[in-house]
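task queued by scheduler; priority normal; single chain, no ligands, no partner chains; default sampling; output format set to structure tokens
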Amino acid sequence: MNQQQITDLIASFPAFEEVPLEQIAWMVERGEYLEIKAGEVFYKRGDPVDKLTILLEGLAAFRMEQNGQYKEMIRFVKGDITGALPYSRAFSGNANGAILSDSKIFTLNKGHFQDLVSECHDLAAMLVHRMTDRVRDMVRLQQQNEKLMALGKLSAGLAHELNNPAAAIVRSSETLQKHLGTVPDKLKRMMTLEITDEQIDQINVIVFGKLNRTDSKPLSMLEKSSLEDDLVDWLEGNGYGDCYMLSETLADYGFSPTDLQNMKEEVGPKQLPMLMEWIDNVLTTQRMIGEIKEASNRISSLVNSVKSYSHMDRANEMEATNVHQGILNTLTILNHKIKQNRVDVVDNLAENIPMISASPGELNQVWTNVIDNALDAMEETGGTLAITSWVDGDSIKVTIADSGSGIPADIQDRIFEPFFTTKDIGKGTGLGLETVKLIVDKHKGSIKLNSNTEGTTFEFCFPIKG
């Protein structure tokens, strides 16, 4: 194509409809025309963004690598403008530009931009307006990707956390069903017991006294093992054969050889074996019911934490907010990642801390972004996550500290910039800490960063009265 054909073609594109033809011709005279075959790459990740590019014919796309796979971020059709634009501060890109079908493109080196702005006002105004639209579209796209990645992390962790108690409920329910299947035979044998109502009452006092105890201190593993050995010795000494499972069940509920001896003296040695079978049945049933109850409560707690974390039933407005509740809910949501990365959480949260005026959902975004980054910093080595809060005059301060390798000193002043990220492609968009800064500013708070090779600490300060 010659220059006149290129000029007329560009002038026919909607974006250039209000640009005088002579200004388009000025641009074409200084630019370069290229024809690229399908499958070729016209821009590589990391290349300098130094040319204005207009797609004259064909189809192209920018693709970003995420977790070893290429994901199409944006597609370009005939008439679209990409690459460098006047006043743009982009120096390099983070995606690859691929040609999807045989294409013709026009490029203008950014070295001509200064003359373009001074000589072609209408063209420059259109391109600057195009840059504004592109920034807005990119921010929207990056924010969507950030939310999707965050949602993926949270949903994966939550699914893992829910899977354990759900599996426990299924397992205990199936075991309980099998266990209850043996009750008819045990009932027949129980009917042969020759004991009085008074004796039954005494046995019930002992058994259900153990079941209903709430003041007993849990035994250590060593103490429980020793108690089981004592119970085995007593049971074997009183004519029982295989009694290891029974001794474990009895030890779980704090039965001692003295308790067994008291029951033997109450009902006599002849009735004791059948009585022990009944006690084993009661304790085993109670244990499985307890497991189901504990697992169900765990699921309920997780669901409530998610509901509180997301504030799905509230408007995103300022209200009296407990800072600690949001932090604890965030830790619950990220618990899977905490365990996976072998991180110990140290809770130094102050007691009776006052409420602040805040948007709980937005504060949770702050805690999530910072804690998630801290966990990523300890992904390879494990470590410690310390969260501390205290009242300082008319403000509340919170520090989140990790024992990771730290943030290099030469980039610490850039971490709150939009699109700046130290993570690999596909692991971060560079909007997390920018979002944190915007939310903290909205709440009239402040952030301080202290980072070295021994770890990173973010210190947040929020006014108690907004």
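post-processing summary
- The CA atoms of residues 230 and 239 lie 15 Å apart.
- The first strand starts at residue 32 and ends at 36.
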